[in-house]
Write the structure tokens for this entry.
Amino acid sequence: MPDITCPVCGEVNSADQEFCQYCQSRLEPLTGPLKGADAPITPGQHPTKKTTAELEPILPQWLREARDKARKTVEEQAAQEPQPPTPASPPDLLAGLQSQGGHEEEETPDWLASITGAKPKAKKTEAEPTEVHWVELGKPDEFMREQDEETGIPATQEPSASASKGGLPPWLSSAQPTQEDGVDELTAWFRQESEGEKPRAEKPAFLTDAGSGSSEALSKSSEETPDWLKSLQAEQSAQLEIPQAETSLPDTSNADWLKNLQEQQFDAGQESAGREAPIQGEVPAWLKGDTTPPSETKEVPSWLRGSSPPAFTSEETSSAEEPAGENLPDWLKAAAPQSSVFEEETAAPAPAESPDWLSSLQKEGAASIFEPETPEEGAPPSAFVDESLSNVNTDALFTELPDWLSNVSPAETSATSAEASLTPPAKSAETLEPGDLPSWVQAMRPIESSMAAQQAPASVGGEQPLETRGALAGLHGVLPAVPGVGASSKPKSYSIKLQASEEQQAHAELLEQILAAETAPEPIASFSPLAAQRGLRWLLAILLFAAVGAMLFLRTQSFAVPSGETNEIRDARLITEAIPENAPVLVVIDYEPALAGEMEATAAPLLDHAIILKHPILTFISTNPIGGMLAERLFTGPLKDRGYQRGTQYLNLGYLPGGLTGVRAFAQNPAAAVPFDMDLAPAWTGTPLQNVTSLGQFAAMIVITDNAESARTWIEQTADKRPATPLIMVSSAQAAPMIEPYYQSRQVSGMASGLHDGAIFERNNAGLPGLVRGYWDTFSVGLLLGMVLILGGGLWNLALGLRDRAMAEGK
Amino acid sequence: MVISPELIELITGILSFLITLMILSYLIGDNPLFRIAAYLFTGVSAGYIAVVAWWQVLLPKLVYPLVSGNPMEKAFAAIPLFGVGLILMKIWPRLSKIGNPAMAYLVGVGAAVAIGGGLTGTLFPQIGATINAFDINLVPSDRPLGFVGWILNGGIILLGTVTSLAYFHFGANAKPDGSVKRFILIEILAWVGQIFIAIALGVIFAGVYAAALTAFIERISSLLKFIGLL
């Protein structure tokens, strides 16, 4: 088995070696599919964050030496030349990036400069000192020197074009022609399209001699460029003006137009490649074996679409590839740093062996393994987002690590490396507890210093209070203590005990006695009347029932009916006899059914006398809802023999609502107040009241009532509406004393009250209807009984009183 | 089935008799029969009043004008209808204030009518009648005792009125010993007024007794008549 020459250091290693025993570089490319932890990240999968501090112990010796050297160099430069004041640096994690500023400007990719609008600087034709940048690849000078010796081509040119097959590994030697003919051709025209006005000396050789494609064409001048290519350059340079102007804004949309631009350039490259059919047909096998079919070669790779922004901006890795081929296109330089220190050692092949961007072409979706942070799901990729991180010099990160990170001892790191292999580093970083704050974070908290100041005799804050708890802990005077808010002193207590002199207390006691005497209930002198009254009541009831029942049962008429007329009865009789024939007479029935016996006995003789003599048209109305029925009772009872017919000889208007207001309304306009009779027939258009429109048109007005208030209402409310209409008041005996003054004042024309006056009327009416006469003896006996009982009861009480007094005097 | 008037009268008489006995049973004290009769009377009265209110008030004075009246009648009927609606709000305590305007109208109109009627129908005529009691020009020719009798009658009325009013005069002055006593003249008039008031109360009592006795006689008479019919 032949030995393998290290592509990096050129030393010969045995065939069974995977890594160079001199420079620890991978001897064979990792072309097979990655597995386990090295498995590529598929689309949609978030890469795990890796802690660079954990990787430091596992770095190779040469790398650690190079890093130490770099630190020393930086320290020496800092000691010799005081650097100008720099702006406030970001946190410790970004410290040291200023040292890479110069390189950043020099090594800004042309394509990025065209996007951002920055004027691209002319590239140096000479190889840049890349000692520091080559720490990952190791011994670049030797590699460069060897290549120059073997190929005789400057190191700035394509290594693939200058490398001989004999000094390359087998896999590289087999791929060399194809890489030379195919890949360089595509990348060269792309660089030309993006650079535009770059010096022609930097153009790839194959562009200057597109028809040959051999290594000899690299030495030809640009003047030999074909016309079609010149026209294409001019055309596409014009197309690039617009995107360049637009890319001045750092927007994520740049990825789209960049992709479009690249597609157009890619199409142009295809067109130019089509003219170079022989070259296209010589695509190497390893490139043919790409998963991307020829028809899809127009598609921009994922890394070019921005899916892996760090591939475009990782300056360190791009600079690391420059010795291998300084004339590499910028996008190729940008693609190279995918093999960075953040990858596993086994996944960091030499650029000359197998570039990672080539692996990314073979494994679609595995291009963005170098994402520093887990991108937010759904967020569009941006070409500028990771620029700051990609521009960070990882050496500076290692040299100027924060305290909490740099203080980690290698032993601890090695101890935790085993755990880190089991658990993702990102997870351990995310699960950092609040109590484990880094020192530089804790240093920002003023608690300790403030607490110390508080314990000091002389406080910094003076009299201002120090907050010891909560979010304001350690701060002075945040919450001002306003004087007067709190209670300054205990309120003075006052005694509620009344302080009064003896005289005042005596007066108070006297007042209390007076009030007590006023409020004390006086005992009512009561006797036991219940038994006596019950017996008396039973006695009176028996006497009354016996006397009345006996008189009614016997139907005696022994008592003479009164014959003498009083002035009231005489006036009432005269008025009744003065009523014109068939004249309308208003009769008001305002008594309760309980007194119907008395009222009917009193009013029936008067009405009967009027009916017999004058046949008046009687109109009944009542302010009592039952008055209408009581009126009908008259014609079905005492006046039954008169044969008066309702609707023709008498009219029953029924109930008059409204009390005294209704009476007043009726006095003003009877037809409007009571338009219908009890049968709901028009009252004032029929025969009884055909010509009556007002109260004054009635021949007489007879009020039959048992209540003085009702009589007074009719007297008062109708006085001015019946100037010539006489008013006869037929009342109960109990209301007569209250109505008598109205007769004395001549407001009532005639009056008849009680059974006595009814008896007189009945006697004057030839004893008709005879009702009073039937009650008269009983009524007389009842009156006598009442007088006897009252008088007897009075005498009895008098006797009892005299007895009690005599007994009292005897005692 | 035709119910003869005699049968109706018989049924009415039986009910009247029974209810009368039930009411008279109150003589032995409050008892269920009396209460039944009282409740029955209350229920019948309420039902009857409701029927009367519908047939004699609402239907002829509200429904008919609104249904078949002329525009003027409808307009006038709408006013009380609106007032009825307002007063019905008194059912709900929260809306009872809505009925206040209608109630205020009723109270205002009622008070005005009562006061006006009292002044013009009672107070002024009664004062005039009392004054005229000494007007000799009004002495009737046929009056007994003539002028003397007229003056005597007027004097009694005047004395009774003045002394009764003096009895209800309670103004008095406090004496040095702390006692309160009316003026001596007022005391004399008040004492005379007590006599007239006592007479008036006696008359009223006699009238009440006579009225109650007459009603009692009528009831007993109806019972006896019913029994006699049997």
About this structure: Chain A has two domains: 4-406, 558-774. Chain A has a mean pLDDT of 66.
